[in-house]
Amino acid sequence: MKSLKRLQAELDIAFRDPRLLKQAFTHSSYVNEQRSADMQDNERLEFLGDAVLQLTVSDYLFRTYPERPEGELTKHRASIVCEPSLVQFAERLDFGSYVFLGKGEELTGGRTRPALLADVFESFVGALYLDQGLEAVKSFLAANMFPYLAKDALLQAGDFKTKLQEHTQQRGMGAVEYRIVEERGPAHDREFVSEVWIGAKLFGTGTGRSKKDAEQQAASQALAQLKA
Q1: Where residue 167 sits, what CATH number does that domain have?
Q2: How many separate domains does the chain show?
């Protein structure tokens, strides 16, 4: 696991309250193992970060695309502030290497689990907002999210299902079917596993905190396989 001091140096962000930063990267499995009354996991920060992301991304899209109607802006925002998209940003920053995990979660590959990575990105945004305010969040996103959206590289990253449907229809590959094959974890931290089948062949598997996110991950994997 990498040091949070290293993360701050790489992001050029110095937290005034280091405890907030540590909380942002503390998974519930770690707290459960430590059994410390003073330790908090990142779930509350994740809740706050989601709202802050909705606001800052909305502001960015509103100002960047003055000619686009409300419906289109809403779709673009949804494609950015969704699990598959946030996972890509978290991976780009190597956030998984900084997470405090319980032993069981570590052994089962928690550092690369999409739902966990998306949650950590949101909780980091929430922690940064509490520590330094909205302008600091905007600066962070301007450096690590918005440039990629401006290039349209990730603007519609969350809409893999539509892209897969278009790809298969253009090539006459047959019907696309999504199957939820597994549900795991406690009720407050549910994770779904989805498969995507094209015709009679399995093309991708995905996981997510909702059935929709799991299907998007599966579609993303299927697209990668088809394009390869």
Answers
A1: 3.30.160.20
A2: 2
Cα–Cα separations (whole angstroms), residue 133 to 37, 142, 154: 27, 15, 26
Output the CA–CA distances (angstroms, integers) from residue 139 to 56, 74, 156, 193, in the order listed.
Answer: 10, 22, 22, 35
Q: Inform me whether the pLDDT recorded for 112 exceeds 90.
A: no
Give the residue numbers marked as catalytic.
50, 122
Strand, coil or helix: 193: strand
Q: Do 44 and 131 have their domain in common?
A: yes
Judge whether 112 lies within some domain: yes
d(C-alpha 48, C-alpha 141), whole Å: 16
Interatomic CA distance for residues 94 and 98, integer angstroms: 8
pTM over 0.85: no
Residues 134, 46 within the same domain: yes
Reported as a single tens digit per residue, the pLDDT across 153-193 is: 444 545 788 888 988 998 889 899 999 999 988 777 788 99
Last residue of a domain, one of 84, 117, 150: 150
- In this prediction, residues 85-112 reach a mean pLDDT of 90
For residues 206 and 214, the answer to whether their CB atoms sit within 8 Å is yes
Q: Give residue 187's pLDDT.
A: 76
Closest by CA position to 53, among listed 37, 71, 77, 75: 77
Does any domain span residue 179?
yes
Tokens of 218: 């599966």
